[in-house]
Amino acid sequence: MKDCLFQMRLKLLPLAILLLLAAPVFAQVPDQSGEASLEADTLQEEPQIPPPAPPEIVEIKDSDNDHGHSIDLEWELSPDDDGTGNYVTGYEIWRGEMVDGKIEFKLRRTVPYGVKIYTDRGDAAGGVDPLPNGKDYWYKIAAVADEDAKTESEVYGPVQATGEWFHTGKTPVAVAVLIFASFSVAFVIVAGGHIDMKQFFIMWPIIFVLIIWLVLLIRLAAGASVNALWFLYAIPGAIAGSLGLAVSIGAIGFLVGWFVWRTKGEETKLYVRPLSGINAVDEAIGRATEMGKPILYVLGLGTASDIATICSFTILGRVARRVADHQSSLMVPCYDPIVMTVAQEVVKNSYAEAGRPDAYDEDQVFFVTQSQFAYVAAVNGMMLRELPASNFYLGIFYAESLLLAETGSLAGSIQIAGTDQVAQLPFFIVACDYTLIGEELYAASAYLSGEPTLLGSLKAEDWGKAIFIVLVIVGVIAATVGWDQFIEAMTVRL
Amino acid sequence: MNPKTIKWIIFVIVLSAIVLSVYFVSLDRGSFRDGVFVTTAAFLTLFIMSFLYKDNPYYKFAEHLFVGVSAAYWMTMGFWGTMVPNLVAKLWPGSVRGVLPALADKDPSLWFLIPLFLGIVLLMRLSPKGGWISRWALAFIVGTTAGLNLIRYLRSDFIQQVNNTILPLVDKTEAGISFWGSFSNIFIFVGVLCGLVYFFFSKEHKGFFGGAARIGILVLMLTFGAGFGYTVMARISLLAGRMTYLFGDWLGLIK
Q1: Is the dihedral of CA B210, B212, B215, B219 positive or negative?
Q2: Is residue B104 part of a domain?
Q3: Residue B17 maps to a domain
Q4: What distance in Å separates the CA atoms of residue A378 and residue B69, rounded to the nearest whole number?
Q5: Is residue A98 within 8 angstroms of chain B, CB to CB?
Q6: Of B154, B166, B203, the CB nearest to A177
Q7: Does the domain made of A56-159 have the CATH classification 3.40.50.970?
Q8: B25 in a structural domain
Q9: To bridge A88 with a disulfide, which of A81, A144, A322, B104 should be the other Cys (CB 3.0-4.6 Å)?
Q10: Across the interface, do A437 and B141 touch by the CB < 8 Å criterion?
């Protein structure tokens, strides 16, 4: 019996060992289920953050006064956003695009609590986040309390980004340009001898309306919405009351203007007060001729597109013409290659007008360098070596103004300067014989050339100044009595 | 000047430059190469300053060196800083991979064929027969940029100036009316208006108008006087900078 029991034990031993080895494996099962249930118990025990109330989208629209590629979003804060960040921590902005008939949203940005505006500016094209104009977009905004506790607003859209042709914040500039342009055109006609001043006052409002009408047509042809044009037709609208009437007035005005222009042929001279610097030009050229020495003409450091340099070209033309007449010599060292090219053309034309194209030497107008002080060193050297009888410094000047003028003074030259650079004018005033201050340079070019376009522009500038004075007087009264609307209207928003 | 004398002067200059370079090194302020550069710059400064005495060969040498080097420098800068990134890289982006890798993967922009065309047209002036064509490019450059400048000037010199001149004639502060504040505002108001009157060209400066113009030019001259003093002080600081270079960086006399 004992043997039998022993044999049974022996038979059961492997089973027992097997069970013993397998015990941990089996033991895992109740353990695992135990842990899982423990975790579940823990989650149930922690208070879960409830999702906050959603924000409400107020408006999503294309950004104003830009070239497009930008959309403005505005929303009401979630009622649960108390501005502390304790509950609502921020807002997720999702932008959606239509893909295969379905809107696919992508997270654009997360903004902090309390923020209720956002401007979506994607890359114009080809970047990682393009926002091309004219494409439909949908937006939704989610109030976020936690990673798992967020509530989305309703989907808003579609919205498109579009560019605007006109910046409504720059309306005062647009009005100023229109007034100036119409004045210029009208005075150019007066200076051309087609009408007199009385007729000008009839012409000006007509031309003013015509220019606005033209701009309006261009804008409409470009597919503008009428809402974007309020500031353009506001002015003729004040006269005409509607776009249609403005167009009619423009058409009638054109006919009247054309009639006046055709019927009047009397020459009308615009008065320009004498400027001592201008009168000295002939004196300076005559002096150079008598002394048999050259004339040095410095166009400054400006580019060919600067107004002062353009005026200087006109004066250079006049000087070159007189130099050709008197058979003197001229030196025009240039800082800018384009300026040199234009100056060569100007001098060449002047020699041709004087009937001496053969006397024109292209080397009279030459390039030096585009380094400011190297240029000054070269011109100063020329002054002391060539000893020019007359020096002209007309254009844009910077720190070199006194260096040039002082050297010219040492060389005993008669000097005429002119610039619109306020900081350099004092140096020219102390070191030169005559100085054209700021706008006198512009006036000098108009006066010397006698061209209707320049004289008309000069007259228009005077009217611009008159308008400036009126605006300043009204503005100062407004500021003194606290009329803020006027000051607001004059403010340019960039 | 006698050529032999010039040779001697050059010899003395070169010798003194070497000696001073060695001196520079002896002060333990850099290598011999640094010393040569600093000494050369100092000598060129002195050559340019010699113009204060009169025109002389040293000034001529420095002037020609300065002009030549700067012209070459700006031409190179113009090519690599303007032509390559603004034209070549826009039209053939792949071609600038070696020099401007950031621009190499962009799409070509055919709009830049217009400036290329205008540039070629501008160069036509080198041709004796086709020179007149270059005027078209010039007209485009001058006309376009002048038109763009008109808007800029109107904004900055007209509208902005009107804004800045609109000041209350009576300057009210929390403590009451400020006398000097009011005086300043009135002075600006009157000064600006009279200054503008001076720049009326189509009306004779007579009577009341002439009186206002006279006040205007007085205001302008006061402004110029203040500007002169201010700018001269800035130039003095430039001179001080050069002196610091000569006596400090070069000779080590200023620590």
Answers
A1: negative
A2: no
A3: no
A4: 13
A5: no
A6: B154
A7: no
A8: no
A9: A81
A10: no
Average pLDDT over residues A413-422: 93
B11-45: pLDDT as tens digits: 777 888 788 777 777 777 778 778 888 888 998 99
Which is more confidently placed, B76 or A171?
A: B76
Q: Is pLDDT at A237 greater than 50 in this prediction? A: no
- Say which of B142, B154, B170 has its CB closest to residue A180: B154
pLDDT by residue (tens digit) across A277-309? Answer: 888 888 888 899 899 999 999 999 998 878 899
| Structural domain that includes position B224 | 167-255
CA geometry: angle A135, A137, A140, nearest 5 deg: 170
Q: Do A426 and B201 touch (CB under 8 A)?
A: no
Q: Helix or strand or coil: residue A78?
A: coil
The tens digit of pLDDT for each residue in A251-270 reads 545 555 554 454 444 445 66
A273 close to B (CB below 8 A): yes
In chain B, how many domains are there? 2
The verdict on B186 and B116 lying in the same domain is no
Same domain for B222 and B188: yes
| pTM tops 0.80, yes or no | no
Find which of B162, B165, B214, B223 to mutate to test the A interface (most A CBs within 10 Å of its CB).
B162
Q: B77-97: per-residue pLDDT in tens?
A: 989 998 999 899 989 988 888
Residue ranges covered by each domain of chain A = 56-159, 168-263, 276-450
For residue A343, give the nearest of A395, A380, A385 by alpha carbon.
Answer: A395
Say yes or no: A422 contacts chain B, CB-CB below 8 A.
yes
Rounded Cα distance between B72 and B61, Å, is: 17
| Rounded Cα gap, residues B144 and B14, in angstroms | 52
CATH of domain A276-450: 3.40.50.720
Judge whether A160 is closer than 8 Å to chain B, CB to CB: no
